[in-house]
Amino acid sequence: MNLLKSLISSAILCTCITAVKAQSVDEILNRGQIRGNFQIEGQIYQEDSLIGAEEVPDRYRTNAFLNVNYTNGGFSAGIRYESYLNQLLGYPEGYGNNSGIMYRYISFTKDKLAVTVGSFYEQFGSGLTLRTYEERGLGYDNALEGIRVKYQPIKGINFTGLTGKQRLFFDFAPGIVRAFDADINLNELIPSIAENKTQIQIGGSFVSKYQTDDNSSFVLPENVANYGGRINIHRGKVNFMAEYAKKINDPSGDNGFIYHEGEAIFVQGTYSQKGLGVVVSAKRNDNMSFRSDRNEGIANALINYLPALTKQHTYNLLATLYPYAVQLNGELAFQADLIYKVKKGTALGGKYGMDFQVNFASANGLDTTNLNDEATERIGYSSNFFSPGEVYFKDFNITASKKINKKLKGKLTYANLVYNQNVIEGKSDKADVFADVGVIEATYKISKKHSIRTEIQALFTEQDKGDWRTLLLEYSIAPHWFFAVQDQYNVGSDKAFQKGSNIFESVSKIKFNSAYNYYNVSAGYNNGGNRVSLTYGRQRAGIFCVGGVCRVVPASSGLYISITSSF
What we know:
The chain is mainly beta. It has a domain at 314-322 and 336-478. Helix content is 7%, strand content 55%. It has helices spanning 2-15, 25-31, 186-189, 316-320, 421-424, 503-508; strands at residues 33-45, 60-72, 75-84, 98-110, 113-120, 123-124, 130-131, 134-135, 140-141, 144-151, 157-168, 171-185, 198-210, 223-235, 238-247, 262-273, 276-286, 330-342, 354-370, 381-403, 408-419, 433-445, 450-461, 468-477, 481-489, 517-527, 530-539, 542-546, 549-553, 556-566. It is globular and about 60 Å long.
């Protein structure tokens, strides 16, 4: 609280707010609202050589966060305290053994002008030119620290301007980001079409980064621009949006310090009516890695965002074994979603109806031609705009959900995957993975407060580590308790499974091998804004992705605790 008071006092002093200058900070706090949340994740690690979980010298590690936000009319201020002592395994090493306040802001709004000083997140359009955000599960945070101004001179026109440096763990990337965005709603701007059924919104953005040329081998541009335009058209049940961005030559560690310009286009159309929804998306990006430090890699210091056109699965086998990571240097991607609700009272829908969701996603490389000009212009390559290259990823999946009766509801999912290990994981010696995945989920309501849920998952493939099985059993006592047991087993590593002449003989010959078994037992308690959960078991080494941004998760074993609270 003292820190928050100091922050507000400084804001009042700096901005000379006359309405509050004669009042104490305590009086201001009493008139405003304070909101926040707390989270801590900790794990006690134990060595487990069977799954490759190595000894962790410090044994116990924690990630902790505290957010406090104060609002009073048009004024707001906030801080976030973070502590990584040391960071949990799998989180970026840059966070390790550090604590402090890396997110703090002061903001006020007056007569359609909004000013933010300090830390902030911002996105222009779909993010092709600029997107800063936090994804705590990935350990990802590229917030800007600086000044942002938003202004609406007249109804229908909104301007955003900003300048700042990007957060890079407990420091800042060396590049300075400068950006401007204009968003125009034509129906609000032009009175004669205000009531038109067709709603049109257009926008444009310009983003520039400045970084000193400190490279002795090449002459590098110190100012790099990324600019683009967008349009969104909505009429009744149909919506269409398109965005295009172009980046000037930006030699970096991502592209091998070539002077090839970058570009990206993202197009999406949707149709929705009662019981039916269709979404079709396409994207092409070529050399669109855009960082405030040209020497960084992985997900560090990214200024822009390239949307992932793949379904965000929640089932364990689909979400963690072969998820897709967006390829920044070039990809051609497509996705189609169909959601259909079968009406009640029909032969298929029955008493409660039935829901179907069909999804198809694909990502290919670009069709490129190497220019062999490393000693001259260093453009690197040319590409055919419409022609797809090597297959990176494919996912066809279908889900059917149905309420059987008042107590029982179920869900069936099937997915067919193609996964290019060479490109996505950099495993040049590995073949593409072709996998089929099936999931059965059922929830049974025992009574008003008691319910039980189960998931049976199976993945079949002849590549990589072979077949996998997962079983989850969860028991809930509303509104406070839940208990769960999960087991994941790498059947493909147990060659005895494949020796039987039929399925019954094969099953009888399974030799349970704990080296391929990943078990978890968990329990949790909820009470108002507080939640506590405990998990003991094994974590399989793999990849964890959100929105096409990923981090590598090493194998681990031990006791995990999570506490969250909001106020």
